[in-house]
Amino acid sequence: MISLYFSHLEQLQAALEKHLTATGHEQLLIGSGALHHHFLDDTRYPFRPNPWFVYWASFLTQHPDCWLLLRPGCKPHLFYYTPRDFWHLTPALPADEWAQAFEWTAYDDLTVVRSALGSARTAIISEQPLPEGDWDLNPDGLMQAMNFDRAIKTEWEQHCLREANALAVKGHRAAREGFESGLSEYAIHQSYLNAIDHNEPDLPYDNIVGLNEHAAVLHYQFQQRVVPQAHRTLLIDAGARYNGYAADITRTHSPAGTLFADLIDALDEQQQALCAQINATTDFVSLHEQTHQVIARLLAQFDIVHGSEEQLVEQGVTRCFYPHGLGHLLGLQVHDVGGWQQDASGTLRKPPEAHPFLRLTRPLAAGFAITVEPGLYFIPQLLSDLKTQPAASDVNWSRVEELLPYGGIRIEDNLIVGEHSSENLTRDGFARLG
Ligand code: GLY
Ligand code: MN
Ligand code: MN
């Protein structure tokens, strides 16, 4: 697998040299990121690396204050921060095979990095500026071009995303077992972490672990310690990281034999049909709009709302039950950069006005990593808005009352787009788990 990493670096280097020529820069310096302190305190937030740094240095995800210098025709040069610090462990220089791809300088004084830059025209990508110098900090043109590249994943990145999915599905299985044995949201979350051997800061985003009505809160942020009286629904949106690459998976569970469980099965079938439509020619905006027809059909089929598909979509009824986007780019960031970007110079295609939360409008291409995550929810706030609309008379409110205690459904898989089809990393991961 390490050979995939080396060829990943070669591809990145070739693309970078092209971009530097275009923007007139002679070199690029990337900072790994900084630690941030809590307000009025000496304790620190968990470290989040600069994704651009991890793009090159896949194995250095927990290393603030390092710098990577990239120059045409040269080995990438890593300035590795090794402070004299008896409060924290100063890591030794890496000796693994991957480290051979870099020149190494251990440093604890920034003048070492600054003097390495010389007088060359330098772009810097970093959250914090390097003081004293005429650098081009986070130059828009270069960053747009690089953002655009990042949507297409190299073989190495695809491997990392596959492994992140293989990890996350283990957590999802543990969570499902926890739900079936009647655990609290908190205990389900803990069993998820245990199953994937992650601490909380390792997660790509805060796990969403919603029981019952909490499944209707799209980004539910609490985990109750109390065990609820009934376990009607578990909606768990939880990921994992592998060398910085994120999985972003949602599953919804409910005991069989209820209308809601049938609704989950029906949406699951539709989600797979949507995934089957993903390839390098798919227009994701159209597919998102098509998903509203799918939701309209399910609403009618389950006797929740009456009316034609077209009418339910046009009147905005489906948006009350499915208020988010169908998916997004995935990679080093859960919502990876450039989802609205149409070209290397940064032209944006905003989502349609009726669908402001759609994060992906870029035409798909082979090698993209994306999520496909339709949902169907019973969200009190949106339902009370719907009650004031003319379409309210088409709603079977007693059916809605019956389903409200179940919260909602989201089913989310991670896919790699191919020319004529796609690879479903999540379903494959579950299948391998057995
Ligand atoms: N976990 C956040 C999302 O699905 O986009
Ligand atoms: Mn997602
Ligand atoms: Mn998610």
Structure description:
The chain is of the alpha+beta class and 434 residues long. 36% of the residues lie in helices and 15% in strands. The chain has a six-stranded mixed sheet with strand order 4-3-2-1-5-6, with helices on one face. It is globular and about 70 Å long. The chain starts with a helix and ends with a helix. The relative contact order is 0.12. The mean pLDDT is 98. One manganese (II) ion binds next to strand 9. Keywords: Dipeptidase, Hydrolase, Manganese, Metal-binding, Metalloprotease, Protease.
User: What is the radius of gyration?
Assistant: 24 Å
Principal-axes shape call: globular
Task: Give the % helix.
Answer: 25-40%
H and E string: HEHEEEHEEHHHEEEHHHHEEHHEEEH
Distance between the termini: 24 Å
Total number of strands: 14
Largest sheet: 6 strands, mixed
Task: Estimate the mean pLDDT confidence.
Answer: 98
Helix and strand composition category = alpha+beta
Uncertain segments of ≥5 residues (pLDDT<50)? none
Sheet-strand content, in percent, reads: 5-15%
Bound molecules: glycine, manganese (II) ion
Strand order of the largest sheet: 4-3-2-1-5-6
Per DSSP, the total helix count is 13
Write a short abstract of this structure.
This protein has 434 residues and is of the alpha+beta class.
List its traits.
manganese; single chain; 13 helices; binds manganese (II) ion; binds glycine; X-Pro_dipept-like; Pept_M24; protease; alpha+beta; three-stranded antiparallel β-sheet; dipeptidase
